[in-house]
Amino acid sequence: MILLRHLICTVVGLLAAGCASTQLNYNTADLATSLNSLEKKQIFFNLAQALSDPEFVPSQVTISIGTAQTLNAITPTLALPLGPPIATTSRFTAGGSPSAQFSTQLTTASPGLGLQMTDGWNQSWTMVPASSSNQLRRLRTLYQYATGTLPRGDMTTDLNQQDAERLFLCEYPMQAMAVSASPAGNVIYRLEGCQDNNSGAPRSRIVHADPTFTQGPNCVVCIDDLNAKLLHPYVNPNLKYHFVRTQAEKREGMIKVGSYDGVDFYICGSNPANCRLAASQEAFNGRQAFSDFVLFIYEAMSVSGGGGGGGAARSTGGSFVYSVR
């Protein structure tokens, strides 16, 4: 019996370990696949806000760490009877009175085996919200650019491509290292024709920018030659102006990419020729434009690390944990 009990315990332990490993793999994969859904829900929320609220402030978080934990435990105990109880009865008579009989009965429970099972799992995301004013300004400008709602004098008339890019350069606050009397590692350039929010008159603007964020495929505002005497910043060609349209602006060649709170969003589909375009804007692939837009959101969330070199970009903000048990 003892040998059988040890064998059962060994088998149960191996089964528990295998179940825990399988469940952990499943939970980890499930957690990883939810990242894309979380990011898109934030984006659709902010796109809807950009369309309905001219004074909106984006709500955006960066998912930094994901944790999946699984606990499976099976503990064998002597609980469930394996058969009927065993009763032993003894009868005897008194020596002085043969008709008087006495009996005793001893009942012994049969041996049994029970199982106590524990199955626990925990999935959590650690999120870092955009909290600095420059992060939020960059995000707001991106969402307004994508929806064609950049602030301007006449909001009923859409901007052409050149005017939209010029306004975007003025409104998008570039990441910069600590600004002092010396350049301190920043590149400096001047923007002309930026709108004054008080008078509406055009004026020039000096921009200090961390050069790390002006290079590479993810730069939102790019500069080709940092050694040129006169720098020429431009909007990344992969960032498309007013590429997100609503139901009222939908045409036959457009497809639905998502929705939020009853607002449906459409982009160019397989036939860009039938899509709505801004004046002087060339046809583009809306699916690729949306994918690139998600990556530009991540770039706008990053801030300068304060030093030169390729590792300057990092994300900041107080983190919190979203957990499902």
Give an account of the 3D structure.
- With 325 residues, this protein is of the alpha+beta class.
- Helix content is 29%, strand content 31%.
- It contains four helices and 13 strands.
- It has a three-stranded antiparallel beta sheet. The chain has a two-stranded antiparallel ribbon with strand order 2-3. The protein has a two-stranded antiparallel ribbon with strand order 5-6.
- A hairpin with a 7-residue loop joins β2 and β3 (101-108).
- α1 (2-52) packs across α2 and α2 (133-147) packs antiparallel against α4.
- Residues 10-16 and 308-325 have low confidence and may be disordered.
Class by SSE composition:
alpha+beta
Cα(first) to Cα(last) distance is 40 Å
Number of E strands? 13
Biggest sheet architecture:
3 strands, antiparallel
- Helicity level, as a percent range? 25-40%
Which characteristics define this entry?
alpha+beta; elongated; 29% helix; disordered C terminus; two-stranded antiparallel sheet; 31% strand; 325 residues
Topology:
Layout: H1 2-52, E1 61-81, E2 86-93, E3 101-108, E4 112-129, H2 133-147, H3 161-171, E5 187-195, E6 202-209, E7 221-222, E8 234-235, E9 254-260, E10 263-268, H4 286-301, E11 302-304, E12 313-315, E13 320-324
Antiparallel strand pairs: 1-4, 2-3, 4-13, 5-6, 7-8, 9-10, 11-12
Helix pairs in contact: 1-2, 2-4
